[in-house]
C-alpha cells in the first residue's frame, strides 16, 4: 500500500496521475464520497504530487525536493486549503474567502509553475460563495487547479458539479475490514459494528473506536424496543436523547426502520444496514403494524431534513418517539 492513498483509493490515484502525465487533468476536480473515506487527505497528497519537482516512478511525491519539503512543513507558497471556520456557530465558506483565493490563483507560481486551491467540504459554500467560485471555474487558467471535496456533493449547485471532473470514492467492506484490522487503538471493539456505525467509512470507524458510540447504540435500540412495547415514557426518553447531542438518533432510527421493512419482506440479512443488530431487529418485528412503520419512516425522513434547521429538536424527538409507541396494535 502507498503512503499517499488508502487501499480503496488506488484506482483513483492511478487514473488522476495518468491524466496528469498526459496533460488531461481537469482544472477543477470534485472528490465525493462518505465522510471518513479519506478524500481530503487524498486531495492534499494529489496536490503534493502535482507540485513535486521529481515524482517517483510510481507517480508519487518524492518527499525530498524543495516543494515536498515546503509542503510537509505547511509553508508551500503555491497551495491554499480553504474550509469552513470550525469554531463558527454556522459553518459556512464565505464569499470573501473564495474571492481572496480566486484572486490569488492566477498569480505567477513561486515554485514549479502550478498553483492549487483545495476547498474542503465545498458544499459548505453559501450561495454567494458558490457564485463567486463559478466565475473561476468558467475561466480556466493553465496549470491552475481547484480541488473540491464533499461528502454531500448533491448539495453543490448543478452548475458547479458540471464544471468539475468528478471522482467518486466507493469503499467495499472487503477492503475496509482488512485495513481496519491492521490499525491500532481499536479498543477491542467489534469491527463490523464499528464499520456499520461509521456508515462504511473506515476513518470514521477509527474515530468511533475511541468513543462509546457502540454502547450508546446498544442503549438506544433497547430504548426503541421499550418504546414499541410501551414500557417506557417517550417524553423521558426524548429528554435523555436530546441531551446526548453527539449521538445521531434520528439517523439510527431511520436505518433501523429501513432494516425492519427489509426483514419484513425478505428474510435474508444480506442487505441490512445493521447486520450486527439483526437479532434485536427480528425480535422487534413481531407484532409490528407495517402501515405504522411506513408512517414512522415518512416522519423520520422529514425530521432528518429538518434536523439541521433551527427547529425545536426536543419537540421533534418527542413527536417521533410517541410515534414509535404506535408501532404495534397492542
Ligand atoms: Zn518532491
Mind sketching the topology for me?
Elements: H1 10-21, E1 28-33, H2 39-51, H3 66-73, E2 79-82, H4 95-104, E3 115-119, H5 127-138, E4 144-150, H6 158-163, E5 165-169, H7 173-181, H8 191-197, H9 202-209, H10 213-228, H11 234-243, H12 249-265, H13 278-285, H14 290-306, H15 313-324
Parallel strand pairs: 1-4, 1-5, 2-3, 3-4
Helix pairs in contact: 1-2, 4-5, 8-9, 11-15, 12-13, 12-14, 14-15
Bound molecules: zinc ion.
The site of zinc ion (ZN) has 9 residues, from helix 3.
Walk me through this protein's architecture:
The chain has 15 helices and 5 strands. It is of the alpha/beta class and 330 residues long. The chain has a 5-stranded parallel sheet with strand order 2-3-4-1-5, sandwiched between helices. Strand 2 (79-82), helix 4 (95-104) and strand 3 (115-119) form a beta-alpha-beta unit. Helix 4 (95-104) runs parallel beside helix 5, helix 12 packs across helix 13 and helix 12 (249-265) packs antiparallel against helix 14. It is elongated, with a radius of gyration of 23 Å. The model has no long low-confidence stretch (mean pLDDT 90). Zinc ion binds at residues 52-54, 61-62, 64-65, 67-68.
Bound molecules: zinc ion
Mean pLDDT equals 90
Give the DSSP E fraction (strand runs of 2 or more residues): 5-15%
- Uncertain runs are none
Number of β-strand runs: 5
Proportion of residues in helical segments? 40-55%
Question: What form results from the Cα inertia axes?
Answer: elongated
Q: What structural category do the secondary elements indicate? A: alpha/beta
Structural Rg: 23 Å
The N- to C-terminal Cα distance equals: 56 Å
What characterizes the major β-sheet?
A: 5 strands, parallel
Strand order of the largest sheet: 2-3-4-1-5
Encode the helix/strand succession as letters.
Answer: HEHHEHEHEHEHHHHHHHHH
How many helices? The count is 15
Amino acid at each position: 500500500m502507498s503512503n499517499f492513498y488508502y487501499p480503496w483509493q488506488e484506482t483513483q490515484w492511478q487514473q488522476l496521475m495518468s491524466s496528469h502525465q498526459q496533460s488531461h487533468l481537469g482544472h477543477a476536480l470534485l472528490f465525493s464520497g462518505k465522510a471518513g473515506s479519506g478524500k481530503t487527505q487524498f486531495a492534499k497528497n494529489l496536490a503534493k504530487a502535482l507540485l513535486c519537482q521529481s515524482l517517483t516512478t510510481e507517480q508519487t511525491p518524492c518527499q525530498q525536493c524543495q516543494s515536498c519539503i515546503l509542503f510537509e512543513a505547511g509553508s508551500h507558497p503555491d497551495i491554499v486549503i480553504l474550509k469552513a471556520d470550525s469554531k463558527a456557530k454556522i459553518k459556512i465558506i464565505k464569499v470573501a474567502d473564495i474571492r481572496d483565493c480566486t484572486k490569488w490563483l492566477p498569480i505567477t507560481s513561486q515554485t514549479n509553475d502550478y498553483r492549487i486551491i483545495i476547498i474542503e467540504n465545498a458544499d459548505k459554500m453559501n450561495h454567494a460563495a458558490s457564485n463567486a467560485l463559478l466565475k473561476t471555474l468558467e475561466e480556466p487558467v493553465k496549470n491552475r487547479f481547484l480541488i473540491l471535496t464533499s461528502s454531500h456533493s448533491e448539495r453543490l449547485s448543478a452548475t458547479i458539479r458540471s464544471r468539475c471532473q468528478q471522482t467518486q470514492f466507493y469503499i467495499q467492506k472487503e477492503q475496509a475490514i482488512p485495513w481496519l484490522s491492521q490499525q491500532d487503538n481499536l479498543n477491542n471493539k467489534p469491527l463490523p459494528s464499528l464499520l456499520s456505525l461509521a456508515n462504511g467509512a473506515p476513518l470514521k470507524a477509527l474515530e468511533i473506536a475511541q468513543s462509546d458510540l457502540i454502547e450508546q447504540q446498544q442503549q438506544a435500540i433497547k430504548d426503541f424496543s421499550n418504546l414499541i412495547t410501551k414500557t417506557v415514557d417517550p417524553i423521558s426518553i426524548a429528554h435523555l436523547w436530546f441531551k446526548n447531542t453527539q449521538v445521531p438518533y434520528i439517523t439510527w432510527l431511520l436505518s433501523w426502520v429501513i432494516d425492519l421493512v427489509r426483514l419484513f419482506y425478505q428474510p435474508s440479512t444480506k442487505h441490512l444496514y445493521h447486520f450486527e443488530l439483526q437479532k434485536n431487529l427480528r425480535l422487534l418485528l413481531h407484532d409490528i403494524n407495517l402501515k405504522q412503520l411506513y408512517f414512522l419512516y415518512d416522519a423520520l425522513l422529514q425530521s432528518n431534513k429538518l434536523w439541521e434547521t433551527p427547529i425545536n429538536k426536543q419537540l421533534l424527538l418527542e413527536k417521533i418517539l410517541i410515534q414509535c409507541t404506535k408501532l404495534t396494535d397492542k
